[in-house]
Structure formats: C-alpha cells, structure tokens
Amino acid sequence: MLFGKKDHLIGLDIGSGTIKLGEVLQTKRDRTLKKFGMAGLPPGAIVEGRIREPEPVADTIKRLRSELKVKEQNVATSIAGYSVVIKKIVVQKMSDEELQDNIQYEAEQYIPFDVQDVNIDFQILGEHEANAEQMYVMLVAAKTEIVNEYVSLLQLADLNPCVIDVDVFALEKTFEDNYEKEEKSVALIDIGANKMSMNILKDGMSAFTRDVSIGGEQITAEIASRLKCSRDEAEALKLGKSKDRARQQDIQQVIYSVTSSWCGEIRRAIDFYYSTYPDEDITRIILSGGGAQTAGFADALSTETSIEVEMCDPFKTLNINEKQHDLDYLRSIAPQAAVCMGLALRRVGDK
After folding, report:
1. Phi and psi at residue 249, in whole multiples of 5°?
2. CB of 211 closer than 8 Å to CB of 349
3. Exposed/middle/buried for 30, CB within 10 Å: 0-12, 13-18, 19+?
4. What is the predicted pLDDT for the residue at 249?
5. Would you say 227 and 254 are in contact if contact means Cβ atoms under 8 Å apart?
6. Are 264 and 303 in contact, with CB atoms under 8 Å apart?
7. What gap in Å lies between CA 245 and CA 252, rounded to an integer?
8. In 3D, which of 174, 175, 93 has the Cα closest to residue 137?
9. Where exactly are the structural domains of the chain?
10. For strand 282-288 and strand 185-191, is the pairing parallel, antiparallel, or unpaired?
11. How far is CA 216 from the centre of its chain?
C-alpha cells in the first residue's frame, strides 16, 4: 500500500479526536526529533475510523503543518478497526514473488470481505517449526474504500500519501526502535478516544492483534449523562478542571467504572492469547494513547492482569534539542505520540 518514491516521510496519526504529526531525521548514526505537534478535531469529523467531514480535518492538518513549519509533503498514516483484518496464516513454502501471485487465493479463506474490495499486503515471517514445507505469513487486508478515504483526505491537505500503515504495526515500530527486544511476550496497548488497539509480540514479532471500540470518550459521555452537562463541560471535568468536591466524587466513580471495563476487556484478550500459546508468559504491558493516561488505570490493569505495566515513551532513544522542543511537554504527552512516532520512523518501501 505504497504511493511515492522519496525515502523521508512525516508521520500523521489521524485519531477521532486529535491529529498528531511527527518528523524524525534518520542517519546511519542516530535519529533526531525534528517536529512534533498535536491539534484537536471537531466532534463527529471522524467516527469509527470513517472520515465524515474531510474539509475540517484537512484544514486542521494544514494548520498544524503551518504552525510546525513542516515542509515535507510525503506522509505515512495508519488505519485500524473493523475495516482492517490481520491474520497470521500458514501456507506452503514459496518465494515472495510466488506468494504475491497467490496471495488473493490464500486471502479468500481468511477475510470476511470480497477480496475485490480490499487492499492486500503480507509479510513472510519464517518457516513453520513443525513442517519444513510450510511457512508463516502475516496477512493484512484493508477495505479499499477506507484506504481511498484516507488517500483523498491527505491529498486534500496538500500531502503525498506514501505509506498507509496499520495502528498496531506503527506501535510495534515504536517498540522496536525504543526498547530492547525480549524473548518473552510483550503486550502493546493503545487506548485513544474511541478505540483500543492491542498487539502482543512473541519473540519480537506480532503474534496477536485486536481492535476494540472503547476509549476515553466513554468517560466523557458517561460524565455528561450522569451530571447532565454538555460534552465540553464533561471533558473539562474529566481532566480535573472542577473544584466541586461533590462532582469530583461522581466523576471518580465514572472513571473507575469505565476503566474497570477496560481492564476486563484486556484481561479477556490476554486469556485468549494464553489459550493459543499456553507456554508463553507476558512479562509486561506497555500502554499508550490518551486514554491510557487516565488516573489509576495503569495500576488497576497491573492488578487485574498480574503483569508489570509501564507507559510508552516513543521519544526514549531520539536526540532532542532542548532549544527547539519543550521537554516537559514531550514527557507529559509521550504516550499519546506512540502511533505517530512509529509512523514517523517509516520509510517508503517498508513492509
């Protein structure tokens, strides 16, 4: 799913509530953060990954690029949700070229869409441990209609779409470039406004992925309903901008209730992973996304799963010029930048 030739890209994470833009300069010796910024989107502009109002979204992207003084037009972005299918499959051993010719036939067995309606990509993972005549392949299929929506949006924003990635793989790229590879399993979990993306890595490779329609907007909506206030008021209350103690008690109850449901959802996904790989242990969970920064959630998740939990820092191994970037700001929003920075580390030609 590639368009374009130039190697250097900017990363653009288009969430339902926020746009994040990042740019990284890479050399053989090191990687340097050049640009990073975020901008809010009007409610309803993007719903469940579908771009309902492309003009205001494109205007927001243009404004953010202008504020950051970003000149690069080649861009990597990502999609997720029900429109994307990711499957680890087993096929007869063949070359990359042969699989390219046969991938549509192989995909028909695993994809719940007409193969004529999807963009298909794949990566050969390696030989099957029990049968030398077979191999593992990561199959990815995205509905062409959705891919075209994002391509059109980026073109409307005067950008050149070069890579259309998937959120869970952008998270994986961030992990690869910032954390030491582990032999045990690691769970990468990103919770945004309306979506949770999970990618469990086994031996450094994706072994289990899942997208679920949950996120921080649930808390906002529940506060608005319980306290009978507007969405904007509820968002402010969620962020702790109220000194009303009575209201704060209600808000804490809402936060506890919603985040408890998140913990249950994650625990069920982890239990499913263990049923598939009974000899595996997940040694840690790395959280990202704005929802993951909800007060008390990380500790509650660690208690629920009995697994060490830490917040993702996608700037961890980057050179950062203190004169050009506010380090306190980057530290405070670091988990929200995980997908964006994974995209910013992509290059044209990546799989």
Report:
1. -65, -45
2. no
3. exposed
4. 86
5. no
6. no
7. 10
8. 93
9. 180-312
10. parallel
11. 15
With 0-12 CB in 10 A as exposed, 13-18 as middle and 19+ as buried, what is 140? buried
Kindly state the tokens that stand for 93.
């051993």
Cα separation, 75 vs 35, whole angstroms: 13
Q: Please identify which residue in the block is written with the tokens 């049968």.
A: 131
pLDDT band at 240 (very low <50, low <70, confident <90, very high): confident
- Contact of 20 with 329, CB cutoff 8 Å: no
CATH topology of domain 180-312: Nucleotidyltransferase; domain 5 (3.30.420)
Distance between CA 199 and CA 202 in Å, rounded? 10
Of the pLDDT bands very low, low, confident and very high (cuts 50, 70, 90), residue 6 is low
Q: What is the mean pLDDT of residues 261-265?
A: 97
pLDDT, tens digit, 9 for 90 and up, residues 125-137 = 999 999 999 999 9
Q: pLDDT class for 195, splitting at 50, 70, 90?
A: very high
pLDDT score at 351: 59
- How many Å apart are CA 219 and CA 294, to the nearest integer? 10
C-alpha distance from residue 40 to each of 64, 66, 123, 146, 253 (Å): 10, 15, 34, 22, 27
- Residue found under tokens 């598939």: 276
Q: Quote the CA–CA distance of 341 and 53 in Å, as a whole number.
A: 25
